[in-house]
Structures are given as structure tokens and as C-alpha cells.
Design a protein that fits this description.
This protein is α+β, with helices and mostly antiparallel strands and 320 residues long. It folds into 3 domains: 36 residues, no CATH class; 144 residues, no CATH class; 110 residues, no CATH class. It is built from 11 helices and 13 strands. The strands form 3 sheets. Strands 1-2-7-6-5 form a 5-stranded mixed beta sheet, with helices on one face. Helix 1 packs across helix 2 and helix 10 crosses helix 11. The chain is globular. The protein starts with a helix and ends in an 8-residue tail after the last helix.
């Protein structure tokens, strides 16, 4: 592939996945012609895993540098690599491992640690090939977070599933997995959004992002509530939507409604609804532009994280 084409593709795809320039360039050069650079998950099991994983990570307990604590992803047909932003979000990442209390299941049912090494932690749904590779978190930090979570859950009368069944799914997990299988018609959307998580870091300076799911008129609806600090005096949602719906690298979504408010004391909001084209699934995107006064609250709560955001997004101050 000509050098200028590789450079152009690297710039474009990086906006979706957040991968480092050199790593992504090497991946592009090694990808056979005609093969997607942001491939969809090949199997229903992989899509279901990513749907549940994104749901688990969608509301961090603490403020993170990158949206949802994930710095970048490497999508592959049969797996996904989640590159977390550092050891300080190990407590957040380890919530992927399932836990149970009575008939309740949390985390990703069936997910087990397959291998830990200096390069990362490999997570596999027991009895399947559905895989998440966790990077950006050291093995020591992961094991500490896992141990702390085991103790915390035990105090609450709950138990991590791999304690009682290290290599097989428990009866409760299998039951819940069967339930998920009947309700995953919109899993393509959850998986597709996770595989393009880098887009959320392109909305000015992301302050606090959370997401949840609702029943929608056209399949499952994902709602994203996104607080950001403006760099250029406005919201970049048009550029975000253009990338998200791009026919080559985006998802088959069409915008059905948009509403933007005026300026208020707290900032401004643009709300946009989109739905799948020929497939069930909806997205509600809420872009909340915050003023310096509102940003100050995050600064007081998490000064180290806010300082890190200033370095990542090359802004001298978020309080102007």
C-alpha cells in the first residue's frame, strides 16, 4: 500500500479506535487488502460479550481521564483488546468479572481469566472462544483489584463466580446467558460502539461520561450523557456524527431527531437521536457543554485526573 494511503488511513482510523500512531500503522500495513480495519465481531457470542462488557464499564465509579476509562481499542473479528488508561482504573476494569448473589448476576456472565502476563490479561467466556484482552493495567494492579473486590463482595454477601467455578460457568450464569441470547438483537450496536470508543475522546475535552440502556421503540436504546469542556467555543457533535455514521468506518445509523438548547449558566446541551438502518437499535447522545464554574467542581473532586486531562488534550487550563 502506498505510504500516503497508509498515513491517511492511520489518521482516519485512529479517530475511531484511539490506537497509537505507530501501532495502528503497523496493523494497517499487515491487514490484507479488502479486509476491514474496524471489523465487526464475527460471532453472536463475541457481540454478546462486548454488549455486556460495555454495559459494565459504562458508568465508572470515579472520574477517568478517557471516557469509560478506556484509552484505545484494537478490534479483531474474534476478539477485542481494551487498552485501559492505567493501573488506577484496575478497580473499574475488574468489574468485568462476574459475581452473584441469590438470583442476581453482575459483570459479564461466564467471563474468566484465561491468562495473565506482562503484556496483559486475557479474559474468555468459559466454554467459548469469545475473548477480551485487557491491556494498560499491570498484572499486579489487576490481582490487587481482584482480591479487594472478592473481599468487598464477600462482606456484602456476594461472591465472584470464578471462586466457586474457576473453569466452567455456574448454573446461574448459564441461565442468565440463555436470557441474554434471547435479547441480543441490538448487540451489533453495543459491540460496534465499543469498537469505536475512540470517537468519544474526540468531543473537545471529555470531563465525565456515563451511559445506560433503555427499551426503545426500535430495539435496545443506548443513552450517552457526555459532559465536556469546549476548546474551540462550540460543540463538535457534527464531526462526531459524521464519523459515527460514515459509510466506510462508522455504523449504519440514521439521525431521526436533534435538539440544541441555548446557553445557560451551566453551559448548553445538544441531544441527538439515531436508529439503526434496517437493524434494531437506537442511540441517544447528549452533549453537555460545561462552563468553567461547573468544571471547577470536577477540579476540586479529582485534581490529578483533571491535570492529566489538560496534558492529554493540550490545554493549559480547563477553568477559563
Amino acid at each position: 500500500m502506498p505510504r500516503d494511503n497508509v498515513s491517511r488511513l492511520t489518521r482516519v482510523v485512529r479517530a475511531y479506535t484511539g490506537e497509537s500512531h505507530q501501532r495502528l500503522r503497523e496493523r494497517i500495513e499487515g491487514t490484507p487488502r479488502g479486509q476491514s480495519l474496524i471489523p465487526a465481531a464475527r460471532s453472536a457470542l463475541q457481540r454478546r460479550l462486548e454488549r455486556r462488557a460495555f454495559f459494565t464499564l459504562a458508568w465508572p465509579d470515579e472520574l477517568t481521564i478517557y471516557p469509560f476509562g478506556v484509552k484505545s481499542v484494537i478490534p479483531a473479528p474474534d476478539s477485542i483488546t481494551l487498552n485501559f488508561e492505567g493501573d488506577h482504573v484496575a478497580d473499574h476494569a475488574v468489574q468485568l468479572l462476574p459475581w452473584t448473589r441469590d438470583t442476581e448476576i453482575g459483570g459479564v456472565p461466564g467471563l474468566r481469566v484465561c491468562r495473565t502476563s506482562a503484556s496483559g490479561i486475557d479474559l474468555v467466556v468459559a466454554g467459548t472462544s469469545a475473548t477480551i484482552n485487557v491491556t494498560g493495567i499491570s498484572r499486579h494492579a489487576w490481582e490487587q483489584a481482584e482480591s479487594a473486590r472478592i473481599s468487598w463482595l464477600a462482606d456484602a454477601g456476594e461472591e465472584m463466580c470464578h471462586i466457586t467455578s474457576p473453569h466452567l460457568q455456574t448454573a446461574q450464569e448459564r441461565l442468565f446467558e440463555r436470557y441474554l441470547a434471547t435479547d441480543d438483537h441490538s448487540a451489533w450496536l453495543s459491540s460496534g460502539l465499543l469498537r469505536r470508543i475512540g470517537l468519544f475522546s474526540r468531543i473537545e475535552v471529555p470531563l465525565h461520561f456515563s451511559a445506560w440502556r433503555n427499551p426503545g421503540q426500535h430495539g435496545e436504546q443506548w443513552c450517552f450523557d457526555m459532559d465536556y469542556h469546549p476548546l474551540n467555543g462550540g460543540c463538535q457533535h457534527e464531526a462526531f456524527l459524521s464519523r459515527l455514521t460514515d459509510p466506510m468506518f462508522g455504523l449504519p445509523l440514521t439521525v431521526v431527531r436533534r435538539h440544541c438548547t441555548g446557553d445557560y449558566s451551566w453551559g448548553a446541551q445538544c441531544s441527538i437521536d439515531a436508529k439503526g438502518m434496517g437493524q434494531p437499535g437506537e442511540v441517544n447522545l447528549r452533549f453537555n457543554r460545561r462552563t468553567a464554574e461547573r468544571t471547577m467542581a470536577w477540579q476540586d473532586m479529582s485534581p490529578a485526573v483533571m491535570a492529566a486531562k489538560q496534558l492529554v488534550w493540550h490545554t493549559p487550563s480547563l477553568l477559563r
